[in-house]
């Protein structure tokens, strides 16, 4: 026979709610990948940029993406620092090596905008 005392029922409900709360917190918690991404982003905000405005750098294109301006830009990295390159020619593909001149830093100096200079 199952006890039907109000104290026992209240305790069972409290334990069930606690278990449900723990389950929901675990499901809503950021994944290990998200935590690592956040850590890397915070570390990037604290370091000095390895590029300088007005200088030209050579790097590999990691991806092509749409810029907020509506044009396609090449994305690459210089010493792990992300550089978005505008004015890219047609036919450019990930894996191509390009030269780009840095024009400005983005908010937080965690990335930079550049203009295409040529293929390497």
TrEMBL record:
Q: Tell me where the transmembrane regions lie.
A: 6-24
Which keywords fit this entry according to its UniProt record?
Membrane, Transmembrane, Transmembrane helix
Superkingdom, taxonomy of origin: Archaea
- The record's region (Disordered) falls at 30-50
Biased composition, class Basic and acidic residues, residue ranges? 33-50
Which stretches make up the TRAM domain?
50-116
The protein depicted here goes by the name Putative RNA-binding protein with TRAM domain
Identify the species of origin: Halorubrum trapanicum
């Amino acid at each position: 026979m199952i006890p039907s005392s109000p104290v026992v029922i209240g305790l069972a409900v409290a334990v069930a709610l606690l278990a449900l709360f723990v389950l929901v917190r675990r499901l809503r918690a950021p994944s290990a990948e998200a935590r690592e991404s956040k850590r890397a982003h915070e570390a990037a905000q604290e370091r000095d940029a390895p590029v300088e405005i007005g200088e030209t750098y050579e790097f590999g294109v990691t991806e092509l993406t749409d810029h907020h301006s509506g044009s396609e830009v090449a994305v690459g990295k210089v010493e792990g620092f992300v550089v978005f390159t505008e004015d890219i020619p047609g036919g450019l593909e990930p894996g191509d090596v390009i030269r780009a001149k840095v024009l400005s830093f983005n908010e937080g100096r965690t990335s930079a905008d550049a203009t295409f200079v040529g293929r390497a």
